[in-house]
């Protein structure tokens, strides 16, 4: 054997080391499944609302806590991730506020007008009640500031298991908007120049506030809701700024989901599960790379804002006698076409106006996050 062949025989090939997949390398803003995740969350809200809207109680506290809170909490965690990223990518106040307003307000206004002048009058007539155009106009004007102040219209809906409220979902949009404004305020103050310091600090502050709620030291409604949504939103923001240190694997998503179910037995699951909710929601959406999960059209917002009034309309026509899950199935079939009309007729045209007259974003490195 020659020396050359012997060297080839004794050469040891070093194993190829692969980098662990982090959220920073995995998340692609142009190829992810977050629209699919958000649509799933909106559909889960329909399922949960189907219980009170059919007069069905959920006595088991852990199930009631998870099913009644997790889906909206996950919405806020995803928003914390995406909205913080939006400001850091383009820290321009005008463009930022225009984008946020165009995403929420046009569909919101159309929804309350359709509810007031179409859905509610039809439902009222089905139950023998009456609504005048003045009653409908009062509902629209009262809620035009985004914060819902009137849930019913002239006492309707009546004769249903959940009377006096046409839309029990819109109230969260006010808190979503406050989170958006909070990001803008932090950016203008220059605090987001060090996001890896500020975001965890805010998470800690809201965690302490949520602890105060759990201990009964904080009882005022505004403070309780501020603690809840601030905690979830900041959990998503922390996930963004630490994305290069957060490893994402399917088995860890499964473990985090299991931990969420265990946390449901606590008096306030968010004290343990807020980062887990953000991790599962954003991590799942980042891993969904297949084209079948990359929904180019986002029906989640329309599904969320129209489901409750349409479910109440179904209840006015007597369908609340159905079992909750069957009622949820019918509600989904009715809601999705309306959500599609909202997206194609209102939301997508509004979003096309976001970048008109806005400055170009600054050049950034090519890392996805």
Please, could you describe this protein's structure?
By secondary structure, this protein is an all-alpha fold. It has one domain (23-292, 299-351). 65% of the residues lie in helices and 0% in strands. It has 13 helices and no strands. The termini are far apart.
List the helices and strands and how they pair.
Elements: H1 3-10, H2 23-26, H3 34-53, H4 61-89, H5 93-126, H6 133-142, H7 171-188, H8 195-214, H9 221-241, H10 250-263, H11 270-287, H12 300-316, H13 324-351
Which overall shape is indicated by the principal axes computed on the Cα atoms? Answer: globular
**Largest sheet composition:** none
Total DSSP E strands: 0
* Number of helical segments with 4 or more residues: 13
Through-space gap between termini: 54 Å
Low-pLDDT residue intervals, each spanning 5 or more residues: 1-17, 364-368
Q: What's the pLDDT, averaged over the residues?
A: 92
Classify the secondary structure makeup into a structural class.
Answer: mainly alpha
> What series of H and E elements makes up the topology?
HHHHHHHHHHHHH
Question: How many discrete structural domains?
Answer: 1
Give the percentage of residues in beta strands. under 5%
**Percent helix:** 55-70%
Radius of gyration: 24 Å
């Amino acid at each position: 054997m020659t020396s050359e062949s012997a060297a080839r025989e004794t050469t040891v090939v070093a194993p190829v080391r692969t980098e662990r997949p982090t959220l920073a390398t995995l998340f692609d803003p142009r190829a992810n499944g977050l629209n699919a995740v958000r649509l799933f969350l909106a559909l889960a809200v329909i399922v949960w609302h189907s219980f009170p809207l059919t007069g069905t109680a959920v006595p088991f506290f852990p199930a009631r806590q998870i099913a009644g809170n997790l889906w909206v909490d996950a919405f806020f965690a995803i928003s914390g991730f995406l909205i913080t990223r939006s400001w850091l990518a383009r820290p321009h106040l005008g463009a930022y506020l225009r984008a946020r307003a165009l995403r929420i307000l046009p569909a919101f206004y159309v929804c309350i007008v359709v509810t007031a002048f179409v859905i509610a009058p039809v439902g009222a007539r089905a139950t023998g009640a009456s609504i005048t155009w003045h009653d409908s106009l009062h509902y629209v004007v009262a809620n035009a500031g985004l914060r819902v102040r009137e849930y019913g219209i002239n006492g309707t809906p009546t004769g249903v298991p959940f009377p006096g409220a046409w839309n029990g979902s819109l109230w969260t949009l006010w808190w979503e908007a406050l989170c958006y404004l909070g990001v803008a305020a932090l950016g203008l103050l220059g605090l987001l120049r060090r996001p890896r310091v500020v975001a965890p600090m805010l998470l800690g502050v809201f965690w302490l506030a949520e602890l105060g709620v759990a201990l009964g030291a904080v009882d005022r409604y505004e403070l309780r809701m501020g603690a809840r949504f601030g905690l979830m939103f900041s959990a998503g923001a922390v996930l963004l700024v630490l994305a290069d240190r957060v490893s994402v694997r399917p088995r860890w998503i499964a473990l985090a989901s299991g931990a969420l179910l265990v946390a449901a037995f606590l008096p306030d699951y968010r004290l343990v599960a807020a980062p887990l909710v953000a991790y599962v929601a954003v991590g799942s959406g980042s891993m969904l790379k297949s084209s079948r999960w990359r929904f180019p059209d986002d029906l989640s917002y329309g599904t969320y804002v129209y489901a409750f009034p349409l479910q109440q309309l179904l209840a006015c026509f007597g369908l609340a006698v159905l079992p909750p899950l069957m009622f949820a199935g019918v509600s989904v079939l009715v809601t999705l076409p309306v959500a599609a009309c909202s997206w194609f007729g209102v939301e997508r045209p509004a979003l096309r106006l976001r970048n008109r007259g806005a400055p170009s974003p600054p050049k950034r490195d090519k890392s996805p996050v």
